[in-house]
Amino acid sequence: MSARLIVFDVDGTLLDSQAHILAAMARAFATHGLDCPPPAQVLSIVGLSLPQAIARLMPGPDAALLTALVATYKDSFTALRAQDASPLYPGARAVLERLLGRDDVILGVATGKSRRGLDHVIAAHGLGGYFRTLQVADDHPSKPHPAMLRAALAEAGVRPADAVMIGDTTYDIDMGRAAGTRTLGVTWGYHPPASLVQAGADRVLEDFEALLPAVEAFWEAA
What we know:
Radius of gyration: 17 Å
Number of strands: 6
CATH architecture of the largest domain: 3-Layer(aba) Sandwich
Distance between the termini: 12 Å
CATH superfamily of the largest domain: HAD superfamily/HAD-like
Number of helices: 10
Number of domains: 2
Strand content: 5-15%
Helix content: 40-55%
CATH topology of the largest domain: Rossmann fold
């Protein structure tokens, strides 16, 4: 059997980083004398690369202000992260370990995080060696552009038909569809399940226990 590739988003899919994201965004906007958008609006942009995400929240186009907000957000997020690490969602580690033990599965990540941010998550949670391909915002256009996923497929040597993209946002679903992979949405993240369905997710999961059966069903039908 040819290898299968399973690619995970991070924030809102593997990692419950909501508290840090909201606090860092609030600090960034307050530092520059701006009212921070409401939490639901902030969480709606999680998954995009940071400049694109903050640009959607700004009151108007201003390149200098955007640069300043991005820098302040990064500093604030780093400070918060140093105090305590965002937790993995319940069941995430168990599923990753089960997949890691399979010879026919390759694991990957495609995230709007920076390389430094992803490295911190992997170190904080002891995930070194779990993922063969790690695609980050530093190296690609923002989601939903398929560049991250295409790079993961090339690095793993896997066809799109043998890959699944798993994420909590429509950006993940749109990216997977554009790259030609199957897509799984998850309900515990930052975009409503109805939005994931509307974006064309092949299936939307209620918990991590449903992930392996869903992936197996894709492969059996192939």
